[in-house]
C-alpha cells in the first residue's frame, strides 16, 4: 500500500475495491463476457456524462480522448476556435494544429474563466468556425469554465461544442444533454478515481454527422471504428483493450453510482470550499479568481522566497503528502492541491497538517494548525 497520500489533480487514490477488481482473470476481449462488462461500463459512463447517447472507452490517457474528439470531427483545413486559458486549452489547440486544422485562439488570462460573450463574438466574426473547444476544469490553473452558459451561447450556432471534462466529470456538474455538448470526454484517473490509462468519449448526433463526413487522419483513435465495434450485438473495441482497466472502470463507476452522482459532486464542492478557506486561514493566496475556482483542484501562490523543491519536497518526504506543482510559466510560482476522487475531511486534514507544518518549518507561519482548524470548522 502506498503510504504517500496523493493529493494530485490525478492520478488520485484508488479504492481497494477498484484495485481488487483488476485482479480478476483476463478474458477474451472478443467474447461474450467482455462484451457484457464493456456494455455495462459504457452504459454507466453515459449515466455519468448525463447523456442518452452511447459512450465509448479508449485505452489511452485523457489526451487520447482529446485527440479523438478533435481529429474525428474537424477535417484538416477546417477552422476551430480553441479557448486557451491554461495548459490543457493549449494542448487542444496543439492537437488541432497537429491534425492540420486551422486554429483560432481565444486567449484567456490564466487564472480567470472565459466570458461566454467572447465566444459568441468570435463565432459572429467568422462563420466558418466548425467547432469550439473548451476545457471545463483547467487543471493547470484551478479554474472552472461556465460550460452551461457557454452551452446556451452555442445553441445559437451551427458549430460543434467540444468540452474537455477530464478533471471534472463526477466531481463537478457536467450534464452533456442539458448543456448541449456535442463532444465530451474524460479520463479514468481523476474524479472517477480509477487507475490511469483509460478514457471515455461521447458524441451527439450532430457530432456523429460530422464524423461521417470527416476523413480522419488518425488510425488508433478512429471513432468510426470505435462505433462499429462498440455497437455490435456483443460490443467490442476495435483493437485489444485493457481488459483489467475495464474492470477497474466498471467498479469505479459502480462506486460513483452507489454514492450518487449529485452527492459526489456536492462532496467535491465541499472539499473545494474547505480547501479555499484553509488556504486563506494559513495566510496563503489563491492563484485562481475565487469566483470561478475549481471544484476539484485548488491552485495556490507559492509563498515569497520558498522554492517548489523545499515546499513540495517537504510535504512529500517528511509528511507523506504529494501535492502538484505549477506547469509551464507557473512552475515554482504555484502549487496545486487536487481534491478529486475519494477525498473528504480525513485527507484534507492530513494535507493541511502537512502544509502547515512545512510552512512553519520554512518560517512562513507561526501557526502550523490554522489550516487544520479551518478544515475542522468547514466539516462540523
Ligand atoms: C483538463 C485536462 N485535460 C486533459 C488532460 C490530459 O489527460 P492525461 O494526462 O490523462 O492524458 C488532463 C490531465 O491532467 C487534464 O487535467
UniProtKB/TrEMBL annotation:
Task: Provide a GO biological process annotation.
Answer: glycine biosynthetic process, by transamination of glyoxylate
UniProtKB keywords: Aminotransferase, Pyridoxal phosphate, Transferase
Cofactor(s) needed, names only, are: pyridoxal 5'-phosphate
Gene3D superfamilies the UniProt entry points to: Aspartate Aminotransferase, domain 1, Type I PLP-dependent aspartate aminotransferase-like (Major domain)
What GO MF annotations does this protein's record show?
A: alanine-glyoxylate transaminase activity; L-serine-pyruvate transaminase activity
**Domain Aminotransferase class V spans what residues?**
10-327
Q: Which Pfam families match?
A: Aminotran_5
Superkingdom of source: Archaea
Give the protein family.
Belongs to the class-V pyridoxal-phosphate-dependent aminotransferase family.
Q: What is this protein called?
A: Alanine--glyoxylate aminotransferase family protein
| Organism the protein comes from | Methanobrevibacter thaueri
Amino acid at each position: 500500500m502506498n503510504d504517500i497520500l496523493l493529493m494530485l489533480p490525478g492520478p488520485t487514490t484508488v479504492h481497494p475495491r477498484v484495485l481488487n477488481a483488476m485482479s480478476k482473470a483476463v478474458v477474451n476481449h472478443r467474447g461474450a463476457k467482455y462484451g457484457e462488462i464493456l456494455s455495462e461500463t459504457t452504459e454507466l459512463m453515459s449515466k455519468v456524462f448525463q447523456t442518452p447517447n452511447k459512450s465509448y472507452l479508449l485505452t489511452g490517457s485523457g489526451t487520447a480522448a482529446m485527440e479523438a474528439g478533435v481529429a474525428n470531427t474537424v477535417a484538416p483545413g477546417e477552422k476551430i476556435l480553441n479557448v486557451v486559458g491554461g495548459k490543457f486549452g493549449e494542448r487542444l489547440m496543439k492537437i488541432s494544429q497537429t491534425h492540420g486544422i486551422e486554429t483560432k485562439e481565444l486567449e484567456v488570462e490564466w487564472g480567470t474563466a472565459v466570458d461566454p460573450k467572447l465566444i459568441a463574438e468570435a463565432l459572429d466574426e467568422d462563420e466558418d468556425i466548425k467547432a469550439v473547444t473548451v476545457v471545463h476544469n483547467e487543471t493547470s490553473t484551478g479554474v472552472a469554465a461556465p460550460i452551461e452558459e457557454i452551452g446556451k451561447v452555442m445553441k445559437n450556432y451551427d458549430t460543434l461544442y467540444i468540452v474537455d471534462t477530464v478533471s471534472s466529470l463526477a466531481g463537478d456538474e457536467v450534464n452533456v444533454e442539458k448543456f448541449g455538448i456535442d463532444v465530451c470526454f474524460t479520463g479514468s484517473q481523476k474524479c472517477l478515481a480509477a487507475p490511469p490509462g483509460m478514457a471515455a468519449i461521447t458524441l451527439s448526433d450532430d457530432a456523429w454527422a460530422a464524423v461521417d463526413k470527416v476523413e480522419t487522419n488518425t488510425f488508433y483513435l478512429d471513432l468510426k471504428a470505435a462505433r462499429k465495434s462498440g455497437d455490435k450485438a456483443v460490443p467490442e473495441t476495435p483493437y485489444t483493450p485493457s481488459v483489467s482497466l475495464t474492470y477497474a472502470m466498471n467498479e469505479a463507476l459502480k462506486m460513483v453510482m452507489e454514492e450518487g452522482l449529485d452527492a459526489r459532486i456536492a462532496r467535491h464542492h465541499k472539499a473545494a470550499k474547505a480547501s479555499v478557506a484553509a488556504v486563506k486561514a494559513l495566510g496563503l493566496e489563491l492563484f485562481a479568481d475565487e469566483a470561478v475556482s475549481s471544484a476539484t483542484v485548488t491552485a495556490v501562490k507559492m509563498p515569497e522566497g520558498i522554492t517548489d523543491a523545499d515546499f513540495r519536497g517537504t510535504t512529500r518526504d517528511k509528511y507523506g503528502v504529494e501535492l502538484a506543482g505549477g506547469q509551464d510559466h507557473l512552475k515554482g510560482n504555484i502549487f496545486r492541491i487536487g481534491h478529486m476522487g475519494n477525498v473528504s475531511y480525513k485527507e484534507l486534514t492530513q494535507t493541511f497538517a502537512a502544509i502547515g507544518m512545512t510552512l512553519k518549518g520554512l518560517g512562513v507561519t507561526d501557526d502550523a494548525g490554522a489550516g487544520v482548524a479551518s478544515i475542522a470548522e468547514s466539516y462540523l
